[in-house]
Amino acid sequence: MSELGPAATIFDFPGTHEEIDALYQERGWTDGLPIVPPTEVAVRELLRWTDRDPREVLGVLPPRQGEATVERIAANAVMAGCRPEYLPVVLAGIEALADPLFNLDAIQSTTHPVAPLLVVNGPIAREIGLNAGYNAFGQGFRANVTIGRAVRLVLMNVGGGLPGIGDRATQGSPAKIAHCVAENEAENPWEPLHVEAGLPADVSVATVFGCEGPTTSRTTSARPVSVCS
Amino acid sequence: MGTFEFEALAKLEAKNRGIEELPLALVPHPLGGIHEDEVVRKADLALESVLKAVTRA
């Protein structure tokens, strides 16, 4: 999409960090965790990491049909705790989710415990420290957790995927809080995901999947087994 | 066509898409993973609202 959307609403709130957080909680603008206040200065700092117009609409997100502008995405990325250099990944992820081929309507509203998974390939994954190794889906790495959280906040605050309203997940999943990893390209016996898709290896790519949280499949048998699917 | 589980969401989304008057034919949840006789029973339940929707002037 290339048209311009509305400028983000800016308001004065002369309160402490705690009071700002309480306001955001009260208005339902968070995922339940405390937020980093999206001040003008902080959002502007993120916007330095993209050449796109702050009002450019990257997609219209269901079920609210909210316009995901670059500026709105940046504000949610600040709230999630993203470092400024993470913004290009968040923008790419939201643009991919908004593609009609992804069917975000279903992922947002289904009763099933699914969430978008962002898989990042190429140089940017290494440059911003996205974890592709030990505990990649777990705790401990700011880029993984905050980029995943930024995507979720955009889906809630712009897309209207609010629990019980626009999001009908009966039980939900921890994957709905943050779901972002890099692919372990160095130890992958196959071609990296983006190369399989026909892109050059040195290009940075974000791929989105609609899926459940990770599960482990393994056999403890010492003998070879056949698996049918 | 949908289930009552999604009624509020369907109405919300219709409104957000500018088609607030979109007629809905709703049946009890779920639609997936049910036996054929249950599919027929739910189709019977929806018949009246489907006819009403498609014949509305």
What does this structure look like?
- By secondary structure, chain A is an alpha+beta fold.
- Chain A has helices at 17-26, 40-47, 70-80, 87-97, 104-109, 123-127, 142-157, 193-196; strands spanning 57-61, 66-69, 115-121, 180-182, 205-211.
- Chain A is globular.
- Chain B has 57 residues and is mostly helical.
- Chain B is flat, with a radius of gyration of 12 Å.
Short description:
The complex is a heterodimer of chains A (229) and B (57). With 229 residues, chain A is an alpha+beta fold.
Strand-pairing-aware structural class of chain B: mainly alpha
What form of chain B results from the Cα inertia axes? Answer: flat
Task: Compute the number of strand runs of chain A.
Answer: 5
What is the oligomer described by this structure? heterodimer
Helix % of chain B is 40-55%
Tell me the total number of β-strands of chain B.
2
- What would the average pLDDT of chain A be, to the nearest integer? 95
Main beta sheet strand tally, sense and closure of chain A: 3 strands, mixed
Q: Give the biggest sheet of chain B.
A: 2 strands, parallel
Proportion of residues in extended strands of chain A = 5-15%
How many helices of chain B? The count is: 2
- Ranges of chain B where pLDDT stays below 50 over 5 or more residues in a row are none
| Neighbour order of strands in the largest sheet of chain A | 4-3-5
Main interface by residue count: A-B, 11 and 8 residues
N- to C-terminal distance of chain A: 39 Å
Taken in chain order, the helices and strands of chain A follow as: HHEEHHHEHHEHE
Provide the low-confidence segments of chain A as ranges. Answer: none
Approximate shape of chain A: globular
**How is the largest sheet of chain B built, in terms of strand order?**
1-2
